[in-house]
Predict the structure.
Amino acid sequence: MSVDVILGLQWGDEGKGKIVDCLATDYELICRFQGGPNAGHTLIFDNKKYVLHTIPSGIFRENITNVIGAGVVIDPITLSKEIASVEAENIVVADRLRISNRAHFILPSHRLLDKASEMAKGKSKIGSTLKGIGPTYMDKTGRNGLRYGDFFSPNFMTKYNQLKEKHLGLYKMYPEVEFDLAAEEEQWFASLEEIRNIQQINAEYFINNAITKGQKILAEGAQGTMLDIEYGTYPFVTSSNTTTSGVCSGLGVSPQKIGDVIGITKAYCTRVGSGPFPTELFDGTGAKLQELGHEFGATTGRPRRCGWLDINQLKFSIMINGVNKLVLTKLDVLSSFETIKAATAYDIEGQTTYEMPYDLMDHEITPIYHDMPGWADDITAAKEMAELPEAARAYVDYIAAEAGCEVHIVSNGPGREQLIFNS
Ligand code: GDP
Ligand code: IMO
Ligand code: MG
């Protein structure tokens, strides 16, 4: 058996949480492989809304084990709050959740450094979620990090204090920021005790044994391909590999074990935080997309920047990840636009290109658009492709043809049941 993958093909918030929750019943194991509390994955069912940051989106389903893999970074404060919100639904999280002993901890002083580093960057700030992601991955690659397994070691406090001291030294380079380190630490250690009962495992063995036993496994990505540390819009990216390759390193599975790669794309584009976004709209159309799509960050509440679908960018993400199935979310948001546009290429100083440039900040990029007629009907109750207006079906077919990838599922609303299988 292999590991199927669900990941974002744009700048995050494509609807990964909803799709994982919808497809979870086909799987026995759901595993997060990278990222941390910078993620905000929204699940809506039984008229309730849940936002998960670190816990995989299979947690509300019975008979599924959820694994936080080695590539994830964990803040006990966020995790213990999430556990409490899930347990409020009478779910015993410890029965359903396992944590890799190799996953790294986010310390309060990582968050302090994230805040100070952003402040020092001024106008060129990344627009980080301020969850301490960058500094934690820096310590991981710098070989200074504190891992979940260390929590159970007699040297835990020594390691913690060494790392904190290093951070306080670094902090001297930065402008002072408002941050009550003592209070944050108190909460951090209290939260750590609250998550003590979540079993730590050698997740790489756990997952590979599950593969050998023929269990069905789903890897859940966080962020999106354009936020990948390698292939995203650097430096306006996150600090992990958000792509299929991140599944192999983050879970300890070999590339031969990767099965379906299910790429999620919105029917338009959004981005939260700073950085280039070629199809961004600064006019009323962008504002309308934001309003109809309720485009506000699930983690930070910041408004998301909006624009038309960028097929040039989408094809790049499909290539990098080896996507064989596309999921098109938020198609319902496009109902009521007279014309719908999708960028098929970029004009960069008079040259037409069908590739993603390595740097999108260096030159002025003008998207070249293809126009299509929109539709006016509400599509949120549709259950089959045949129920969609002709123009909506034409848009889906156009994306599949341009992207060279089958659209497997169309999502037509935030609810669990609002899903149309196209094949
Ligand atoms: P994720 O980070 O990829 O899991 O996505 P987020 O949860 O951050 O953002 C997606 C938002 O869109 C959430 O508010 C979802 O409830 C909502 N959503 C997901 N799919 C659809 C859809 O097909 N239509 C609409 N209107 N909303 C959707
Ligand atoms: P999900 O999983 C959207 C963005 C931040 C910022 C940049 C770096 O919900 O799709 P970081 O805190 O990682 O150092 O921030 O990445 N970002 C996201 N944008 N969705 C996310 O996650 C994101 N996680 C990080 O806004 O621009
Ligand atoms: Mg999100």
Q: What stands out?
A: Residues 12-13, 39-41, 298 surround magnesium ion (ligand 3) (CB under 6 Å). The radius of gyration is 21 Å. The first strand starts at residue 3 and ends at 8.
